[in-house]
Amino acid sequence: MTDSIKLELRGLRKSFGAVHATRNVNLQVREGEIHALIGPNGAGKTTLLSQISGEITPDDGQILLDGRDITRVPAQRRAAAGLARSFQISQLYLDFTAEDNVAMAVQARSRGGFNLWHNAWRDQRLREPAYAELVRVGLGERANVRVSDLAHGEKRQLELAMALALRSPVLLLDEPMAGMGQEESRRMTQLLTKLKGQYAILLVEHDMDAVFALADRITVLVYGETIFTGTPGEVRQNAEVRAAYLGDEI
Amino acid sequence: MSQLLTRKNILHAIGLLLFVLVPTIADATSEPYIVNMITRLVIYAIAAVSLDLVLGYGALVSFGHSAFFGLGGYVIGIIGFHIANDGGLFGWEGSNAALVLWPIAMLACALLGLIIGFLSLRTSGVQFIFITLAFSQMLYFVLVGLMIYGGDDGMMIDQRNTFPGLDLTRDSTYYYFCLAVLVIWVYLCRRIVNSRFGLALRGLKQNQRRSVALGFGPMGYRLTAFVISAAGTGLAGVLWANYALFVSPDMASWGKSGELMAMVILGGLGTIFGPVVGASVFLGLEQVLTGLTEHWMLFLGPILVLVVLFGKRGLYGLLVGGKHHD
Fold first, then answer.
1. Looking at the 3D structure of chain B, how many domains does it have?
2. B53 to chain A, closest Cα gap in Å
3. Does residue B305 belong to any structural domain of this protein?
4. DSSP per-residue string spanning A39-105
5. Which of B16, B201, B236, B300 is the most exposed, having the fewest neighbouring CB atoms within 10 Å of its CB?
6. DSSP class of residue B313?
7. Interface mutation target, options A56, A91, A144, A166, chain B, most CBs of B under 10 Å
8. Alpha-carbon distance B152 to B141, whole Å?
């Protein structure tokens, strides 16, 4: 195998009562690739991401990170294992400034969480990397704005900054363009293009222009099952995928 | 210089000055009871500041903090009782030194906090309120049942603990001593809530889901805050026992927990300084209104409602102005 696999899902299954949210998911995300996960609403994309990030435990199957089985590792340890995620509905610290939010992520990956003495708001080891990450996603000028005062698109950028600040090799991005206007989507696509090659990214997204512009490979999820994986070109040509999902969008 | 002369700092300085002047004012007006009254206030303020650590910064609504207040007091009472009656306990001849007894009492409260916190923090919301209440009620009834220590009536304590170089039996000395403890405790709590630990604790309060995704385990941070808070509240209980020279199960009653919560909310959740203001106003109102009517809580209720509705950060928030919530 030429490409090393960073994240692998093997035969993942999850039911909620009679609802089979995840029936049989097999998926591999290689080093440096953007792997898009697409599918109609209710296909179980977010449920799948929640299993990978550890919020939900699968009934069956395995999740491997760098070949290591993390299926039973608690959610709070997965970040340290090298997995960062962003949320479809922004999960931010609304009373904090943008920089405080990223500082939380910087602190999460460094030591000293039980330092009860030194002021964290004046700690340059938190502040400088946090600010740098904000600049990277284009929020440098908004560093000292309270998150509740940020615009929707800015919150989405901040979501990404927090995931990046963890410096995890694997990123799970849950609809980074959700609720964005065209111009904002375009900027986010540019931003993600710059990340290409540096991370193994599993990208859930509804914006097909963005998906086809960014993805190296695409997996199609329908009714909790992965029905196809291939390059954007292959996905476009696959009849089953068109019937199941894409319709005349392409 | 302008950095120093903020409205907040000026208010803090005035507040501290007023506290420092209390014995002088008492002397000048020949009303010595004022010193005792304000000593009580300072002790309650220490407990309220401690409660704010979990209530304000962790959004952990503990309705059982009276347990730590009661236990802190009873540790002093019980050790004093055995020294006076049996000449010691468990083969230890005993000591009346504050520097020996107080750490023991605080350690006992921290340990109780560890147990209660470990079990209660598995729940959240209403369940957390009730499980903490249940634990403090358990302690309350244990204290009521301990007939050897006076049961329902509580017990008297022979003398105040001793502190090197200070005569704590003098009321004004004891007052200044308690005030110093309050100032140090407020300073320590400010350090804690502004540290990396404090950042993590506040983050968990605002968005647990995000915090867990970043790798913050909720239990470790919340339990640590709970234990520190328990030890601080226990210290207030210790000071109370020494002040009143009397402990009773009433110290651990649920009503006491409610009073502490009212002080924190009145003064301002998540401000550390606020609970000091809250304790002052609460006890001030009690003092003034009980002179007028037995049902003084009738007046406190509406005031509390107004503060919750209109003052985002309580009375302290109103005093220092909107933006300065830190």
1. 1
2. 13
3. no
4. --TTSSHHHHHHHHHTSS--SEEEEEETTEE-TTS-HHHHHHHTEEEE-SS----TTSBHHHHHHHH
5. B16
6. T
7. A91
8. 9
Nearest CA in chain B to A89: B210
Residues B197-211 have pLDDT tens digits of 999 999 999 999 999
pLDDT tens, residue by residue, B55-75: 999 999 999 999 999 999 999
Structure tokens at B41: 């206030």
Strand (E) or helix (H) holding A170: strand A170-174
The reply to whether B266 falls in a domain is no
Nearest-CA distance A210 → chain B (Å): 25
ipTM above 0.90, yes or no: yes
List of domains in chain A: 1-82+169-250 (3.40.50.300), 90-167 (no CATH)
> CA A142, CA A164: separation in Å to the nearest integer?
17
Tokens representing B69 are: 């207040």
Query: How many other CB atoms sit within 10 Å of the CB of residue A149?
Result: 11
Rounded to an integer, what distance in angstroms lies between the CA atom of residue A38 and that of residue B116? 47
Measured distance between the N- and C-terminal CA atoms of chain A, rounded to whole angstroms:
32
B190 inside domain: yes
